[in-house]
């Protein structure tokens, strides 16, 4: 049995795991099951069938083959003994164990290569399941415990009023396995943009630049992510990282998650100090009681 899908994984169900059972949703043929392609409609916020002659943005086409299938009606007996257990599907229905293959899209009679699996295909029909998962995936993406990463200030934890304070972000790709509508969904989140709230009413971003560390002898230089505080005090700095994601259903090919997820780090306190410059005629060796010398009380703070 063969399923060919261009640009999107289709999830099908059976009432039993037998390979010769025709109780499969879709257009049944004795030796294959073909389904029209689907595409994401950003205006409708759902999947729609591709129009005739439309071209998918995905460079691959996909198909599944039954796990352990040797061709025709033959199966590998040793493989079947260790095949994926698809008996405990949603709504009490069984599934079929499969592996996914891929090939360049639009190539007739292509050479297929392994993509992923083995995994199970379960009910319900793709016309019911895929649009429902697509409608939910952005909300579920935002709910994931994605780490926004960390924001570092230079100098830190204390910086100077009127000087450039360099900030830079560190965030990593993250992967999650979740369940949506009783289907196994694998999500990958990649940081793509960064925004800072500096705690003094000003902000920067979102922008693609994450910034980077400076050697200490260059602290105070202006960078793409630096900020100048005009007042002294303690300021809570919050980093918000924007992630783009992909998701795959039941081990199928990755699909883009529309939009971005935004995740904020806990506030990081930066203390802004002021500088005072005074000129002295003597050194502390010449005048041990001079201002700034060890053991001498500092002058009262000025304006």
Report on the structure:
With 303 residues, the protein is mainly beta. The protein folds into two domains: 2-124, no CATH class; 133-273, Immunoglobulin-like. The protein is 8% helix and 40% strand. The chain contains two helices and 21 strands. The strands form five sheets. Strands 12, 14, 15, 16, 18, 19, 20 and 21 form an eight-stranded mixed beta sheet that branches. Strand 2 (27-28) and strand 3 (33-34) form a beta hairpin. The protein is rod-shaped. The termini are far apart. Mean pLDDT is 77; it is low at 1-41 and 44-49.
Q: Any idea what the CATH superfamily of the largest domain is called? A: Immunoglobulins
The number of helical runs is 2
Give the terminus-to-terminus CA distance: 83 Å
Please state the CA-atom Rg, rounded to the nearest Å.
30 Å
Shape: rod-shaped
Number of strands: 21
**Secondary structure category:** mainly beta
One letter per element, helices H and strands E, the order comes to EEEEEEEEHEEHEEEEEEEEEEE
**Which CATH architecture of the largest domain is right?**
Sandwich
CATH class of the largest domain: Mainly Beta
Helix content: under 10%
Here the CATH topology of the largest domain equals: Immunoglobulin-like
Average pLDDT: 77
In short:
The protein is mainly β and about 300 residues long.
């Amino acid at each position: 049995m063969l399923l060919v899908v261009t640009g999107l994984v289709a999830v099908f169900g059976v009432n039993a795991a037998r390979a010769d059972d025709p109780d499969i949703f879709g257009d049944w043929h004795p030796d294959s099951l073909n389904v029209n392609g689907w595409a994401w409609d950003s205006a409708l916020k759902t999947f729609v069938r591709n129009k005739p002659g439309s071209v998918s943005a995905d460079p691959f086409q996909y198909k599944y083959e039954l796990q352990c299938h040797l061709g025709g009606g033959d199966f590998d007996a040793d493989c079947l003994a260790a095949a994926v257990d698809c008996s405990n599907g949603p709504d009490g229905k069984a599934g079929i164990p499969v592996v996914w293959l891929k090939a360049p899209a639009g190539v007739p009679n292509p050479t297929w290569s392994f993509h992923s699996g083995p995994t199970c295909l379960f009910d319900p029909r793709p016309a019911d399941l895929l649009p429902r998962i697509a409608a939910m995936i952005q909300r579920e993406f935002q709910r994931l415990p994605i780490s926004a990463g960390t924001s570092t200030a230079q100098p830190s934890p204390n910086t100077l009023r009127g000087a450039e304070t360099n900030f830079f972000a560190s965030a990593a790709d993250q992967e999650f396995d979740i369940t949506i509508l009783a289907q196994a969904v694998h999500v990958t989140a990649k940081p793509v943009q960064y925004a800072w709230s500096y705690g003094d009413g000003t902000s920067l971003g979102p922008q693609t630049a994450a910034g980077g560390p400076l050697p200490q002898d260059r602290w105070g230089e202006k960078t793409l992510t630096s900020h100048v505080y005009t007042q002294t005090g303690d300021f809570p700095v919050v980093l918000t990282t924007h992630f783009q994601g992909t998701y795959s259903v039941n081990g199928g090919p990755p699909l883009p998650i529309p939009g971005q997820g935004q995740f904020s780090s806990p506030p990081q306190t930066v203390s802004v100090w002021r500088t005072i410059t005074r000129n002295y005629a003597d050194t502390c060796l010449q005048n041990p009681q001079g201002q700034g010398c060890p053991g001498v009380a500092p002058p009262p703070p000025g304006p």
